[in-house]
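DM from R.C. (forwarded with permission)

"hey, sorry to bug you on a friday — could you get me a structure for this? deadline for the figure draft is monday and I only need the backbone to look sensible"
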Amino acid sequence: MTVAHAQTAAAPAMQRYDIAAGPLSQVLTTFSSQAGIYVVGATDLAKGKASPGLHGTYSVNGALHALLAGTSLAAVAHDDGSWSLEATSDNAGDSTLPAVKVTGTTERPTQSLNPPTTVGSKEALTAREIPQTVSVISQQQIQALNLQTVDDAMKYAPGVTTEVNQPGFASYYSRGFPISTIQFDGVPTGVVTSGISGPTEGLAAYDRVEVLYGPSGILNGFGGEGGILNLVRKRAPSQFEASAQISAGTYSTGDVQADVGGPLNQAGTLRGRFVVDERYEHQMQDTTWQRNQQFYGTLEADVTPTTQVRVGVSYTDIYGKPMYGLPNNTDYTNLKVSRSTFIGPDWNWFSNQRTNAFAEVEQKLAADWTAKLSYNFMRTTTDVLTGAIITNDPTTNLANHYSLNTADTNTQNALDLYATGPFTLFGRTHHLTVGASYLHTNDVTNQYLINPATGLDFEGDITAPLYDNSAYSNAFAGGPQNDVKATSTQYGIYGNARFSLADPLTLVVGGRVTWWNGDSVPSSDPNNNFFGNTATHDHVSAKFSPTVGLLYDLNERHTLYASYASIFQPQAGNETVSGEVIKPLEGYQFEIGEKGEYLGGLLSTNVALFHIREKNRAMADPVNQGFYVAQGQAQSQGVDLRATGRITQNWKIGAGYTYTNWRNYDDSFVQHQGFSVVTPKHLFKLWTSYNLPGQFYRWTVGGALYVQSSTFYTDKSGFLSNNTASSGTLTAGGYATVDANVGYQINKHLSASLLVTNLFNRKYISSLTTGGPGTYFGDPAKVLFTLRATM
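My reply, with the result:
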């Protein structure tokens, strides 16, 4: 009998697993990530074997027995706390099987650097099972770098850049295109102007952030070619857990978090979790500040041995005094001021409240199938009152001042129902997912305008000295309004099949059919319809979005893959002269690459070549002013290099380099600019952490490096120069920033850390946006001290 000894892990005694059936090597990889153990040298033992998967709550012992069912291998417990994997009597005569060592790790399951992801899929898959590039900002990385917001996380996501549109609102880009699809636990939300994906969304309620790169319309309907951002909520744990942390730093930063959860009855069939986060900080500009509050609670119940119900709610409240970006000079130079310079009136105000409620019912079916119904409710209210500068003449320092007062309420209701499981065809086991989804959004925007009787026009566009605050006005009361109600409804059915063509070869084929309609209805009161807008109705019928991928396992370490994925986006509001909405914006991506696993699965790598094409971009009709034609095209292609995991047991690393070569085939009227100003040609990110050995084992040191080449904004319409016959280019130079952190484990329950961001206090422009106050500096050097307690 061949025996493989295993050391027990410091993972929880009982844990819930949902692992689909498949090749034993892949199933063991998934289990290792979730259970906090890893298997070394299992290649020959697992070769040619399949596992029935794992669904339910198990100890490590019970899980291994269930995973190995029917494999001629068995798990045996020993008195010293170790485990053995043994060949059963079917293989008793085989003396050539090599030993397999299972080694424990002190990480909790949610702290794995390479956990299986659900982004772009309805089942948890390892990176090697997905024929596109994916990345994860893990809980371990969130804690190590004390990341507070989604925007913080995107800073460390390989290949992603952030464009600040205005305070509280951000757009994320990858491979030259926007990431406009945001998911919560795999359920998509609508893309709205109220900043649902903004940087102020706190991370306290989320276990990790997943990113899939490139288009993927199969589960989301429409969206951008940049990819998908999936926020994975924290689950109620099967054992009692509690943590609290307090942080203090420069710029009067203070943060308090508490997180507690565990079973609520003796059987452990009812579990709960509650998270609270309170944060206050001054921002880099003088007199500006922001306060963030977040509350999150969830309950999970095992109603029957095969039925689980999960409900939860979160509430976020963000408010403060912001500053809009710096104005752009009319000669296409950047305004030369210090980072602390505040430009704007003292009455600037920003407020955002977001309520998110969700419910899930998961049912285990016969033949290892699972069905899941998810409901997601999102309500976001945003109020903005501000004064800012559009452009500045650097010769005279006369600037165009304007004032803005808007309120927006966005409500979304989403439903998603799917079933997934294995099936047998031609003697092989395959996997199928089928589902349907529904998303309804209702957005009400109230724009309050300054009464022309005051001497200001509706834009408040006043020429005055740059620092003349008297040129702003907040006299909105009693003035005209421009109110619009926009609704949209999206239905879709989708399917995805993973065909095991041979032991090393998997074909992934899927598609989605989407129906969509949208209405924009201005107020019927002329006093509340200042611009004289008319109602519009747009629709898309039975739009098909296909996807196909091929994965070939060269060996246990390397997988080659190729894929094609598509996406589309309705262009509501852009109509032809005949009154019809122009064709949807369409995009597709071809990607080929190689994914690898080293050091027993501790380190994962990805090399990818990508080519993305976008067509039907809205362009101004050259014959009929005020109307559009869908003739624009754009393209990006390049290479992605990634490495994430452990180089040694004590040394963790996450690194990514992206080269993007883009080309714009038109001048977009809608954006007034060249293509992809926020995407640098070269982007490199590195994060690392090292736990010192020997007598210094309590200490951890780490850091991060961010390097990007220049970005630019090409104004071919003369918008900035106030002269349509003129044009020019604004440029933000390339830059590099360094972060550093050190941690000390005081005892097994208490730790302390010190984080310094932008260590060398590099002054740089982080974002150039189109028109208006569009230039934003990156943060100066900041220091943050954190004390964290766990139970």
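R.C.: lifesaver. The radius of gyration is 27 Å.
me: no worries. The domain at 3-106 is CATH 3.55.50.30 (Phage tail protein beta-alpha-beta fold).
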